Amino acid sequence: MEMNNIARNHFNLAIQAENYKKNINEEEQNILLLLNKKIKTYDDYNQTQTQYKKQIYDLNQKISAESDSQYYVITSTMEGYISGLTKTNGDSVSPHEKILTIIPDTREMVVYLFLDSSSIADVTCGGRVTIKYDSYPFQKYGVYQGVIKDIGRYPVDPSVIESSYGLKYSSPMYRITIRPDRNDVVYAQHSYLIPSGSHVHADILLDKKMLITWLFEPLIKFFKDNK
After folding, report:
1. Is the model's pTM score more than 0.90?
2. Domain identity same for 49 and 124
3. Per residue in 140-190, pLDDT tens?
4. Which residues are paired to 180 by β-bridges?
5. Is residue 85 part of a domain?
């Protein structure tokens, strides 16, 4: 009887041991599943973090590119000071649009004249010009001289002349560059520098004739035409 009880207890213990082993195996499987899930979650996290870092990098590159396209540093080839600034912060600028003038420190002044096509044929470089400054009435300050240094090869559109120089014309004009003999005017033994942006009226000397020839020229032409 006692042997049967021992055998029965041994059998029950063996069954319990098997159940424990089974439970241990199940727990080990659960642990492995959790570890795999944790590893997958960690990998997903790393992948997501990498994607976010790439997106942030791409956005920073775009921001940098946008900033570079909005701002340009333009260095002047000469020393001087700015005059005639036509734009302020935030204004748009069109290609080839003049936005300012740099006046060289040498103070060598130039005057721009505009002529239509009917007058340009007789104008030559080196020709003499008489200049009257609007800011200094010639009746008081006198008339000054200059020389033609350059003649534009192509006419300038009226809209460009207006935006760049504030002058209005109805048709394209040729730009003539004149260098005055002096950059000041004199009155009562005082010298006054011509400010940049001053408007002028000028007469270009096209020909020289004796007064008597000029007076009799209509008569001479009349007799020639009626021969």
Report:
1. no
2. no
3. 999 999 999 999 888 999 888 888 787 888 899 999 999 999 988 999 888
4. 146
5. no
Strand arrangement, sheet containing 144-151 = 111-115, 174-180, 144-151, 128-133, 200-204
CA gap 194, 180 in Å, rounded = 11
Is residue 91 domain-resident?
A: no
Q: Is there a domain that residue 30 lies in?
A: yes
| pLDDT in the model for residue 29 | 80
Any idea which residue has 């213990």 for tokens? Answer: 13
Asked if the structure places residue 42 within a domain, the reply is: yes
Do 47 and 141 fall into the same domain? no
101 φ/ψ sector (left φ>0, alpha ψ -120 to 50, else beta): beta
| Weakest mean pLDDT among 36-40, 98-102, 205-209 | 205-209
pLDDT for 34-54, tens place per residue? 777 777 777 777 777 788 788
